[in-house]
Design goal:
188 residues, alpha/beta, Rossmann fold, two-stranded antiparallel ribbon, 10 strands, 34% strand, globular
Length: 188
């Protein structure tokens, strides 16, 4: 969600189709949100464009093909994760912020760029040995995705890959993911 020194347009990692190029152009920068000095990447315009959104989901779903389930990280990861799961032909399970689930299988505390938080996994959605493809919108420092991986591994799942719409390379989040297979559609 933040970009620090790496301010600039999003660029495609692979697959420069017209629809994906349009998708990259639709990501809007919002300075000083949620606090001063943070550059927020707003994917709402991309989600509102059916052709661009469809192209993004198709590209993000390809690496998820060997998974048993897609897990989407709250909140924008839900939108992408549900669509990726549907395109990949598997179910979707949300990773939620604390206090949002009636039955919790596991929880994990982690640090954000500007605070701390807790993630929770719902009971009954991910089973020991499940092959999980984890989806989120933006990889910044890697804290949220790392905590989500640890949460899934805590219940015995195998994280077979991670998919993000946008990787903010200047923030080094890839390094926090301990060599897990990461598929970033765009970099910024």
């Amino acid at each position: 969600m933040t970009d620090g020194d790496g301010r600039g347009p999003s660029t495609l990692v692979n697959e420069p189709t017209p629809e994906l190029t349009r998708a990259a152009e639709l990501i809007r920068d919002v300075p000083d949100f949620p606090e001063a000095g943070v550059l927020f990447r707003d994917v709402t315009p991309l989600l509102a464009d059916a052709a661009a959104f469809g192209a993004v989901i198709g590209a993000m779903a390809r690496p998820a093909s060997g998974a048993d389930v897609v897990v989407g990280v709250e909140a924008r990861g839900f939108l992408l994760g549900a669509a990726v799961a549907l395109a990949a032909g598997v179910g979707m399970v949300p990773v939620r912020k604390a206090g949002k689930l009636p039955l919790v299988a596991a929880s994990r505390d982690y640090q954000l760029e500007y605070g701390s938080a807790t993630l929770e996994l719902p009971a009954g959605g991910v089973h020991p040995g499940s092959r999980v493809y984890l989806v989120d919108d933006v990889l910044a420092t890697g804290g949220t995705l790392r905590a989500s991986c640890e949460l899934l591994e805590q219940v015995g799942a195998v994280v077979v890959g991670l998919g993000v719409l946008l990787e903010l390379t200047a923030l080094g989040g890839r390094g926090a993911l301990a060599g897990r297979p990461l598929h970033a559609l765009m970099r910024g």
